[in-house]
Amino acid sequence: MPGVVLIGAQWGDEGKGKATDLLGSRVDYVVKFNGGNNAGHTVVIGDEKYALHLLPSGILSPGVTPVIANGVVVDIEVLFQELDDLISRGVDVSRLLVSGSAHVIAGYHRTMDKVSERFLGKRRIGTTGRGIGPAYADKINRVGIRMWDLFDEKILAEKIEGSLDQKNHLLVKVYNRRAITVDETVEELLAYADRVKPMVADTSLILNQALDAGKNVLFEGGQATMLDVDHGTYPFVTSSNATAGGAVTGSGVGPTKISSVIGVIKAYTTRVGEGPFPTELFDEMGEYLLKTGGEFGVTTGRARRCGWYDSVIARYSSRINGITDLVVTKLDILTGIPKIPVCVAYDVDGVRYDEMPTDQTAFHHAKPIYTEFDGWTEDISGCRTFEDLPANAQAYVRSLEELSGARVSAIGVGPSRDAIIPLHDLLH
């Protein structure tokens, strides 16, 4: 069994942690390949709820080796806050590996993120202010700091000096802030060097060796397809590749070692931050989905924008990710809604679009074309087989499958770890 990629098929917050749990003990490695602590996964185990931001969800599965790969940007302070929280709750975190090539988020990245976002005003992107974008910008500009650099103080100081040279001019002359010194940043990062060193490794080598040995490796994406820096709703996107291709570059594993791609998708749609959202609801039904679905960001606490299922986006995600299996989550939230609209196409100034418009202006003006499906009133949270679902719920899922371009292999019917209906084996 080669590698499996798990990605969000909408704008994020689809419930990827539940899909990771479904694979559970059958996976040997869970790899985070993009993003930073700007997204969150909520995992419910019994009466315990865990909110993960930087760590892969697999850290909660005994026997699994969790890996933070080279495509991630790491805030080391946050890393240890999360680890210490899990340790205090009795979770074994000793298996965690961190790529030496992963880039580090320093204090000045967070500062630049916040002041530049404020400076943009109405043109703001809606970032989390956690320094992810500026850290990726430094990576591309070749002035970034990598995990390996923490173990050579001279190299670390030189790299920080190079990175701060331009930033301090901006901070002082444009943003009217104080300059950040090299010494304070070196001190900030070196404070964690000794503790993080045993975790740092050549994770690309380890993962390739594991795959060659027949181990099961799950590549878990942060954020989601529509936030991908290349394929999302640019510029209202994240700063990394959250699509399936990002698993290859973000982990150092070749594409021939990926056997399947699992897309996680809600039975409706949500989005956090700025940017276009064709099926967004501004009425009492949007408020109902927000409250009933508990649609508040795990990382930021921000209320999510809510709307109906968008099959145009689902087809787009299936196509660009090569999705082989869909996991539909939060089907239970739709219980009690008499008629459930699903967006099947867009109207853009009188022109019908059955596929995602590539033109940014067209997508901003897209109006949803809906088909309605009959709802159900029965409580489905206890259903564990497809046949247990009410007939209308079954019909809704089958319609989503037909409209979305990939088979539905699992259905989430509640927040708990076992509230899921498996239809097909996700490890195939």
TrEMBL record:
Binding site for substrate: 298-304
Keywords tagged on the record: Cytoplasm, GTP-binding, Ligase, Magnesium, Metal-binding, Nucleotide-binding, Purine biosynthesis
Main EC class the enzyme belongs to: ligase
Top-level taxon: Bacteria
Residues the record lists as binding IMP: 13-16, 38-41, 128, 142, 223, 238, 302
Catalytic residues identified in the record: 13, 41, 139
Primary localization class, coarse: cytoplasm
Pathway membership, UniProt: Purine metabolism; AMP biosynthesis via de novo pathway; AMP from IMP: step 1/2
Record bears the keyword Ligase: yes
One function term, GO molecular function aspect: adenylosuccinate synthase activity
Cofactor-binding details, from the entry: Binds 1 Mg(2+) ion per subunit.
Keyword Transferase: no
Catalyzed reactions per annotation: IMP + L-aspartate + GTP = N(6)-(1,2-dicarboxyethyl)-AMP + GDP + phosphate + 2 H(+)
PANTHER family membership: ADENYLOSUCCINATE SYNTHETASE
Function of the protein: Plays an important role in the de novo pathway of purine nucleotide biosynthesis. Catalyzes the first committed step in the biosynthesis of AMP from IMP.
NCBIfam families (alphabetical): PRK01117.1, purA
Protein name: Adenylosuccinate synthetase
